[in-house]
């Protein structure tokens, strides 16, 4: 835990919300901020374009993509708004999502639907799941002749379920339907190869499981789809003089949003390097085992149930405490923190009350047992 800046007195089981940045990465982040302040004009106008290109190249290599297909953005909500507003969708068109999508991104499509007249169709994926094939078939029941875009998560935020996105993208491509994947919880938690996934659009954070600084994310658009994507914010990259033009129109239009602090973007290569050196496949598997341990220990308490088989979740484990009849899930979350210093999300979803346990390199077995003991003392068992 000393590698991170987290409060050692807190049992931090909520990496999934905002991540946590290792000291080495945070040091690089602050170094870039100091470089900016030493000579802002030189840094922003003469040095930044190449620095961003280098960061983007390393990120693209990490993701199995080409650097001209990836642009740095603050977060997936930004990318979802871009697609929702710019695609030529109108009356009679449908965007298909699952019932487990992240609220802010779902709102982006619902907002655009009100403005442009298309429909957002929400398809249920019943839990518990049994197989990838069953997930695809359940989701595909929502596809109609009017479906123009599928927007679905790689790993869902609410239910921590890993979805077979490559199979969904292949089936959509065969049907002539565009696909956008919300990968907020994927890179860093699992290996991501964008070429193999085959989505038209893919977005994710770098500040969650990759452990980069807050406010760093990416937006991938296949080269043959880039003509469909207009910038959410019009700035110098779009203008006729192309002041910040780089490799291509896509990057020029979407990456330069005006004056802002680019340090989080520039620290992404440091986060990738930290992962390669410190969060090896063995360390990742250890973290997954702690998530599974949390689920198994909690589910031994009467009235608490596991939600997914081990194969369908990674470093986010989910338990169902609906039978415990928690009246106020927000208050219950506060109780766990106030009484036990446990930081963990308690979620209301479809009349169910869920606890999502996130683990990472700093998680210890003692953290998991403290969590399990807190549930026993709270609920009995």
From TrEMBL:
Entry keyword annotation includes Isomerase: yes
Domain (Aminotransferase class V): residue spans on this chain: 28-344
Pfam families associated with the record: Aminotran_5 (PF00266)
Assigned keywords, A-Z: Isomerase, Pyridoxal phosphate
GO molecular function: isopenicillin-N epimerase activity
EC number(s) from the headed UniProt entry: 5.1.1.17
Enzyme class: isomerase
InterPro entries the UniProt entry points to: Aminotrans_V_dom, PyrdxlP-dep_Trfase, PyrdxlP-dep_Trfase_major, PyrdxlP-dep_Trfase_small
Highest taxon listed in the record's lineage: Bacteria
Descriptive protein name: Isopenicillin N epimerase
Lineage: Bacteria, Pseudomonadati, Planctomycetota, Planctomycetia, Pirellulales
Gene giving rise to this polypeptide: cefD
């Amino acid at each position: 835990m000393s590698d991170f800046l987290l409060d050692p007195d807190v049992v931090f089981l909520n990496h999934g919300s905002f991540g946590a940045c290792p000291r080495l990465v945070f040091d690089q982040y602050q170094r870039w901020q100091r470089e900016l302040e030493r000579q802002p004009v030189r840094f922003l106008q003469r040095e930044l374009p190449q620095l961003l290109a280098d960061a983007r190249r390393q990120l693209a290599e990490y993701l199995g993509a080409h650097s001209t297909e990836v642009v740095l953005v603050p977060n997936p909500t930004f990318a979802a708004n871009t697609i929702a507003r710019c695609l030529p969708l109108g009356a009679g068109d449908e965007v298909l999502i699952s019932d487990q999508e992240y609220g802010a991104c779902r709102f982006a499509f619902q907002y655009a639907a009100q403005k442009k007249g298309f429909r957002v169709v929400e398809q249920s994926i019943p839990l518990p799941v049994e197989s990838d094939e069953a997930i695809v078939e359940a989701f595909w029941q929502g596809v109609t002749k009017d479906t123009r875009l599928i927007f679905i998560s790689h790993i869902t935020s609410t239910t921590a379920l890993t979805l077979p996105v490559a199979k969904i993208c292949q089936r959509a491509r065969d049907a002539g339907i565009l696909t956008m994947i919300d990968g907020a919880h994927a890179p860093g938690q699992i290996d991501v190869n964008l070429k193999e996934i085959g989505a038209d659009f893919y977005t994710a954070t770098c500040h969650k499981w990759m452990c980069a600084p807050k406010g760093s994310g990416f937006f991938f658009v296949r080269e043959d789809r880039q003509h469909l994507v207009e910038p959410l914010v019009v700035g110098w990259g779009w203008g006729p003089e192309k002041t910040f033009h780089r490799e291509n129109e896509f990057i020029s239009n979407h990456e330069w949003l005006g004056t802002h602090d680019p340090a989080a973007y520039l620290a992404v290569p440091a986060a990738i390097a930290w992962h390669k050196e410190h969060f090896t496949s063995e360390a990742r598997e250890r973290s997954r085992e702690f998530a599974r341990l949390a689920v198994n220990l909690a589910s031994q308490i009467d009235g608490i149930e596991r939600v997914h088989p081990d194969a369908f979740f990674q470093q986010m484990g989910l338990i169902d405490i609906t039978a415990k009849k928690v009246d106020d899930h927000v208050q219950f979350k506060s109780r766990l923190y106030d009484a036990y210093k446990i930081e963990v999300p308690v979620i209301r979803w479809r009349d169910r009350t869920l606890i999502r346990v996130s683990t990472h390199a700093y998680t210890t077995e003692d953290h998991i047992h403290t969590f399990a003991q807190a549930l026993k003392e709270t609920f009995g068992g």
